[in-house]
Inverse folding.
């Protein structure tokens, strides 16, 4: 067991904090909480998908900058300690990324980004329930849940279980979900010209 660091930190303090262990952390109610290390296949999907989106944005000169493993500051009520999530992929607005390039502060989603992508691990309930509610409350316009191994509950990916990409669109303050499986093209309002299927994402684990 890795001990939880119990010093209360602000989001900015947390970004500059390092316990020297090399572990990844999230900020939960002001406390730095260690994260489990991802599997190789999980990293392959995150890396492959992020590179694909970077190339897509560059080729079409889109106003977005995709980046891996960035902290997203969550909404915090008055008098509550701050929290964040270390998202697998964050798609920043280009103007926000350029603003950060002019700053010495750590690169992170200080304001709601247009798109967040989480790749599902064994703790799939966090992605389908907890993080969905957090990103919805934050106002993230689009939230993808990439379940390349079909780990999620039947209520989220159907029966029989199979690899699924769920695109959650923020409409009137609430997420509306659409599932994509097999060779069905993923429909993304942020990336309307993107040609991508769940099968192609699965193939990223086999390269």
């Amino acid at each position: 067991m890795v001990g939880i660091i119990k010093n209360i930190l602000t989001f900015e303090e947390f970004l500059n904090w390092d316990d020297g262990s090399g572990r990844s952390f999230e900020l939960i109610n002001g406390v730095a909480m260690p994260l489990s290390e991802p599997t190789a296949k999980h990293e392959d999907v995150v890396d492959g998908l992020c590179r694909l989106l970077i190339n897509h944005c560059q080729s079409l000169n889109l106003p977005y900058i995709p980046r891996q493993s960035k902290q997203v500051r969550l909404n915090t009520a008055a008098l509550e300690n701050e929290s964040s999530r270390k998202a697998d992929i964050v798609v920043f607005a280009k103007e926000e990324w350029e603003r950060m390039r002019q700053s010495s502060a750590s690169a992170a989603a200080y304001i709601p980004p247009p798109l967040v992508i989480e790749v599902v691990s064994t703790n799939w309930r966090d992605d389908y329930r907890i993080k969905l509610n957090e990103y919805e409350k934050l106002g993230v316009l689009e939230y993808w849940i990439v379940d390349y191994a079909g780990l999620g509950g039947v209520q989220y990916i159907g029966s029989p279980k199979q690899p699924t990409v769920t695109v959650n669109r923020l409409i009137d303050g609430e997420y509306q979900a659409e599932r994509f499986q097999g060779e069905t093209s993923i429909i993304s309002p942020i990336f309307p010209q993107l040609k991508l299927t769940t099968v192609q994402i699965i193939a990223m684990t086999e390269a």
Summary: The first helix runs from residue 11 to 15.
